[in-house]
Amino acid sequence: MFYSKLKTIFLSVAVIILAGSMIAFPKESFEASLRGLTMWWEIVFPSLLPFFIVSEMLIGFGVVKFIGVLLEPLMRPLFRVPGVGGFVWAMGMASGFPAGAKLSARLRQEGQLTQIEAERLASFTNSSNPLFIFGAVAVGFFHNPQLGVILALAHYLGNICVGLMMRFYGNETPDRKKGKDNKFILKSAFSALHQTRIKDKRPIGKLLGDAVNSSIQTLLMVGGFIILFSVINKLLFHLHITAALARGFDVLFSNLSLPDMLSIPFISGLFEITLGSDLTSRVGDATLLQQAIVTSFILGFSGFSVQAQVASILAQTDIRFKPFFFARIAQGLFASFFALLLWKPIYVRFYQTGEPSNAIPVNLFDQGTWPQIYFHKLTEAGPLITIISLMIYVLLLYNRLRKSY
């Protein structure tokens, strides 16, 4: 009872401070809100929407169940999750946050995962997508496409380690495929595909409409969190709270032989990965290796902004958020370790040149790399895709409401 009252007081005071800060810093709040909206408008919405819609349709048509049966012999021994986890893992890596959580929650609602299996799966299937790592971070912030190789390897190897670690989480789950002959696994997969499609009695048009509706609703929620945490991060900086928290990490950074100047970008990255990665790339006193280590932790931890998105999605089911949170800390540590471990054998050996570590390679932007080109095209076409998608969503919602009356 006392804890509940204390929590109520804390949350009330925090919201009052946030509201007062927005009144005290209206210009800064507006600029931060606009920055978050631009990120969602140009990048997040158009890049995630196709993956979300296709995922919903694949689940409805039974393709995910088909893939799950095929991947059962791989996913069950390694991660102690059903084979459908392989689909969630692949889609999570391809599309980025918070696709892994959304698909894990969706499969839990479908009854294809137990609660413990869903918590395991959500813990290691949420990751940054390659476009963000190469296009936004490596090229956009560090102006160094080769650095994206180290960041991506460290990030995805960290994902695998988290998955292997989380296999020991929770009680033993029954092996649903025990006794099945692997010679007939393809037949079982096709049978599962057909049965799943038959059970879902929705016509194709209704299935597509539901997929669009569900996906856009999720992305609207994601956009709200991005804007909110962009404002919170900016206000924390102007209230000098970020600097106060950073001083607490100075001792830790000194013991790890990291410059104190990285502490403020690190704290910013704990709240929002884009701002934290950008600020880390601007610290001139740090070596590129030190920047890569901090950035790898920020990408692995995901930031409270992404974690809030995931918490909102998981709250629709009985999947608990706590395992996901501790898995994010573990992935941040794993990713930082792999960035350090792979630096000499990969980056120094194959990519490092005689130019300064933070210098922009000659003709980089004239020649153009595929992440930069794709990222640039996405920012150009993103707003148009967002507008068209929102118009379709409004029409579908209007049609649904009209039929309900």
What would your notes on this structure say?
The chain crosses the membrane at residues 48-71, 78-101, 121-142, 149-169, 216-237, 249-271, 291-313, 325-343, 381-398. Residues 44-140, 219-315 form the Nucleoside transporter/FeoB GTPase Gate domain. Pfam families: Gate (PF07670). This is Sporulation integral membrane protein YlbJ. The protein has one domain (25-169, 180-350, 365-404). Helix content is 79%, strand content 0%. The chain is built from 18 helices and no strands. It has helices spanning 2-24, 26-61, 63-79, 84-95, 99-110, 115-124, 130-141, 147-166, 185-199, 204-238, 241-255, 263-271, 273-281, 288-301, 303-314, 322-351, 364-367, 370-404. The chain is globular, with a radius of gyration of 22 Å. Mean pLDDT is 82; it is low at 355-367.
Topology:
Blueprint: H1 2-24, H2 26-61, H3 63-79, H4 84-95, H5 99-110, H6 115-124, H7 130-141, H8 147-166, H9 185-199, H10 204-238, H11 241-255, H12 263-271, H13 273-281, H14 288-301, H15 303-314, H16 322-351, H17 364-367, H18 370-404
Helix pairs in contact: 2-10, 2-18, 3-4, 3-9, 4-5, 5-6, 6-8, 6-16, 7-8, 7-18, 8-14, 8-16, 10-15, 10-18, 11-12, 12-13, 13-14, 14-16
Pfam families: Gate
Organism: Neobacillus driksii
InterPro entries: Gate_dom, Spore_IM_YlbJ
Cα-atom radius of gyration = 22 Å
- The averaged pLDDT comes out at 82
Largest sheet: none
Terminal CA distance: 44 Å
Written as H for each helix and E for each strand, in order along the chain, the element string is HHHHHHHHHHHHHHHHHH
Number of helices: 18
Defining key terms:
about 400 residues, globular, about 80% helix, mainly alpha
